[in-house]
Amino acid sequence: MGGMIRFHNTLSGTVEDFVPLEPGLAKIYTCGPTVYDFSHIGNWRAYVFEDLLKRFLIYRGFRVAHVMNITDVDDKTIKGANARGIGLDEYTKPFIEAFYAERDRLAILPADHYPRATGFIPEMVAVIKILLEKGFAYRKDGSIYFAIDKFPAYGRLSKINLEDLRPGSRGDADEYEKESVHDFALWKAPKEGEPFWETEIGPGRPGWHIECSAMSSMYLGKTFDIHCGGVDNIFPHHENEIAQSEAANEVKFVNYWLHCHHLVVDGEKMAKSKGNFHRLADLLARGYDPFDVRYLLISTHYRKMLNFTFEALDQARTARRRIGNFLAELKAVPDRAGSGAPVDTPIEEAREGFAAGLDDDLNISEALAAIFTLIRTINPLLVEGRVSRPDAIKLAAFFAEIEGVLAIRPLTATGPTGRMSEIAAASGPGKIDAATGPTGPASFDLPEGVVQRKIEERQKARAAKDFRLADEIRKELSDAGIVLEDTKDGVRWKRVSPPKA
Ligand SMILES: [Zn+2]
User: Fold this and answer.
1) From ligand 1's centre to the CA of 501, what distance in Å?
2) pLDDT tens string for the chain (501 positions)?
3) CB within 8 A of 342, min separation 6: which ones?
């Protein structure tokens, strides 16, 4: 089915054929939330786009290894925790939990792993040590900075102009504008009232960018296939990730960079001060369904600006209802209904159009157009009673198949159906079980270093009598096919065949 999958690569600025490092496997790293607040719909736009990408790759027969970081230590989280006078862990926990809960409501397939920055300090320190040894980093007043003039490829991703750069200018802030391009902090000296770690490179805490370099290579290797984020991650975050990783590892960091455009509300940048700031919970409180939101978020091509309006959200709901009504009609086709109307060709054309659209840098408009063309073709036949029961089942099976990619939960007059697979006697090859996730632990083996780190984390949690965290870690490992055995000589572990295949 279909030709090559093609993606627009921010690095080259062109649309390229997708050729993974390992045939049949796509290794994806996506920048996750900074858990200083609840995610807003602009954040969710990026995560839903990444989910469409992932589901489509699975539909096209790829296994997907997906890692998303959680930034639980940076300028913003520290500021928030200090403002409330509580520890970082206590401060970030509710935001992390809300992130997972909302992810599930939006039917976003879970990543294989969600490493938290605070769990990987030694790995970040190891990368910084290499950068110091190789002369890409230098110390200043207890902090460590990356010298961008030592890395000639700096600016290649963001196409930044380095001419105005003042040599040796540096900054400590995690986020800054292109206009103030400068040496950035890898490691920040301890400050009054800030958490810090005692490490080999001295006391302090990591800058924001180093976590993604350290954790992505830990899980996915020094070079992997796809790195995603929002356009506002391109500079400085992703530019800095490339500099850190390629300077330390001396190999290409990422082959394909995919960035999703901004979301604006009524044509304006979303801001709490303007009263146009929406979280998922705000929209649900107005009576919308998470799948209305999801439909709206995926239905604009990811490289276009998405203008969020309530009118557009209503239209998303209407589109879901159109599909839902069509499915209800199919379900109502009686056994004795006539046959003779050709459905195979329209289904095949819709399948081809759907895949061809998404093959073309996830052109969702084309993919959705193919679906609505099919509905328009079949509707009159349904009205005339010319669709047979077996053909209705074939059509429903096709919709179940694409639901694995779109996950929009078509709506009927009586509410969400959510039972398309019941209508379909057979399900298509691309069927994806959103409840359990398609990739599961079989995507890739958890690297030994990560296993060791998790075991240490669990031991620490147990020593601190945080049994809930200890259990969570055991569960995470067991989901990845790692079984722990507590012995009197310590913890032993072994790989078993993954429980969910
Ligand atoms: Zn990142």
Assistant:
1) 29
2) 457 999 999 999 999 999 999 999 999 999 999 999 999 999 999 999 999 999 999 999 999 999 999 999 999 999 999 999 999 999 999 999 999 999 999 999 999 999 999 999 999 999 999 999 999 999 999 999 999 999 999 999 999 878 767 777 899 988 888 877 899 999 999 999 899 999 999 999 999 999 999 999 999 999 999 999 999 999 999 999 999 999 999 999 999 999 999 999 999 999 888 889 999 999 999 999 999 999 999 999 999 999 999 999 999 999 999 999 999 999 999 887 666 788 999 999 999 999 999 999 999 999 999 999 999 999 999 998 899 999 999 999 999 999 999 999 999 865 444 444 334 333 333 344 443 344 443 456 777 778 888 888 888 888 888 888 888 888 888 878 888 888 888 888 888 865 443
3) none
- Measure 212 CA to ligand 1 centroid, in angstroms: 5
Compute the distance from residue 455 Cα to the ligand 1 centre, in Å: 25
Number of C-alpha atoms within 13 angstroms, CB side, residue 128?
Answer: 30
Residue bearing tokens 């093609």:
6
Quote the pTM value: 0.88
DSSP SS3 for 264: strand
CB 276 within 8 A of CB 268: yes
C-alpha 32 – ligand 1 centre gap (Å): 7
- Map 457-478 to HEC letters: HHHHHHHCCCHHHHHHHHHHHH
What's the 238 CA to ligand 1 centre distance in angstroms?
Answer: 7
The CA-atom distances, in angstroms, between 247 and each of 180, 254, 255 are 22, 13, 16
Exposed e or buried b per residue across 339-352, where buried means at least 16 C-beta atoms within 10 angstroms of its C-beta:
eebebeebbeebbe
State the pairing for strand pair 183-188/14-17: unpaired
Cα 217 from Cα 361, distance rounded (Å): 26
User: Per-residue DSSP letters for 227-246?
Assistant: EEEEGGGIIIIIHHHHHHHH
How long, in residues, is the chain?
501
Contact present, 209 and 229 (Cβ < 8 Å): no
Per-residue burial over 310-332, b if 16 or more Cβ lie within 10 Å, else e, is eebbeebbebbbbbbbbbbbbbe
Distance 283 CA to ligand 1 centre (A): 27
Using the mean position of ligand 1's atoms as its centre, give its distance from the Cα of residue 244 in Å: 12
Helix (H/G/I), strand (E/B), else coil: 401: helix
